[in-house]
Design goal:
Blueprint lengths: L30 E5 L3 E2 L11 H14 L5 E5 L4 E5 L1 H10 L3 E6 L4 H15 L4 H13 L5 H8 L3 H9 L5 H8 L5 H8 L4 H14 L3 H13 L9 H17 L3 E6 L2 E6 L4 H11 L1
Parallel strand pairs: 2-4, 3-5
Antiparallel strand pairs: 1-5, 3-4, 6-7
Length: about 280
């Protein structure tokens, strides 16, 4: 039996070199061919989103070459539960395999989460929200501090803290991060806003205007320095300000956009005849 911990060094450290042992009673650390229908998913699995196209591509490779890297499982009452390798297990099912190579490891639920999380981090398979949710579950189900957690997964504590802050975002904003509509950088900036209303409004502006993280930061800074008004600006007003800023940068002069209902006007300012001629030439 393997005594040393293998976390952070990949699954190869958990796979012994010994030949297959008896299938009737596999012990921790043993390798054998397991029926795919005897394995169930791990409810603590950090990864929640599996792209169908990627699974199909892997299934094609498995049909040709088989499952090369064994799946890590733990024994439960009815069979086996996945620890790491769910994507391979799903692809093997789609490829029509009846059995897959597995390695059995005795673990606690939090150890299963730790192993699955580390494998996904090493493969960079998790989106920021999935990673944050996994860290949150880890902290809730153990006595681990953020500092210790950071050491276990090989990350800076500030990285862990910033990821956990993303879970304070509204659910629909989190979904935009999961779907790739917002980057981790965008999400971090939005998490710094005070209210869900602000977070959603700026989220809409970012997506509609295809703003970079730097542009988003500048827009939020500008909004924060404006004098407070009784009525909080809506999404359209922030969007109009963004358009005005874009015209100002493009024309090199002050621009105002005033809107009343569906109508409005654009005011372009100039300080000399020469500047007026330059603007007319630019606009033509």
């Amino acid at each position: 039996m393997i005594k040393r911990k293998a976390l952070g060094r990949g699954l190869s450290a958990l796979i012994p070199d010994a030949e297959d042992t008896e299938k009737e009673a596999p012990k921790s650390g043993e390798y054998f061919q397991c029926p795919v229908d005897a394995i169930e998913p791990n409810p603590m699995q950090p990864r929640q989103n599996f792209e169908d196209a990627a699974i199909e591509e892997l299934a094609g490779s498995i049909r040709e070459k088989g499952v090369i890297t064994p799946i890590l499982v733990s024994k439960n009452r009815d069979g086996y539960q996945l620890i790491a390798g769910e994507r391979r297990w799903r692809a093997a099912q789609r490829a029509g395999l009846e059995t897959v190579p597995v390695v059995v490891k005795e673990t606690t639920p939090i150890e299963s989460l730790e192993l699955a999380l580390i494998e996904n981090i090493h493969r960079r398979d998790l989106n920021p929200i999935e990673e944050a949710q996994a860290y949150q579950r880890w902290l809730e189900n153990s006595n681990t501090t953020q500092e210790t957690l950071a050491q276990r997964v090989g990350k800076d504590r500030s990285t862990i803290t910033n990821l956990l802050r993303l879970l304070s975002l509204p659910i629909d904003v989190q979904k935009d991060v999961i779907d790739g509509n917002l980057t981790m950088g965008h999400a971090r900036v939005l998490a710094g806003l005070k209210t869900p209303g602000e977070q959603k409004s700026f989220r809409d502006i970012i997506i509609k205007g295809e703003l970079s993280v730097r542009q988003t930061e500048n827009l939020i800074k500008k909004a924060a320095t404006k004098k407070p008004v009784k009525k909080e600006k809506g999404e359209d007003e922030y969007y109009i300000d963004t358009l005005a800023d874009g015209l100002k940068r493009a024309l090199g002069t002050k621009v105002e956009i005033k809107r009343q209902g569906k109508k409005g006007q654009i005011n372009i300012f100039f300080n000399s005849d020469e500047e007026l001629e330059r603007l007319l030439e630019h606009l033509s």
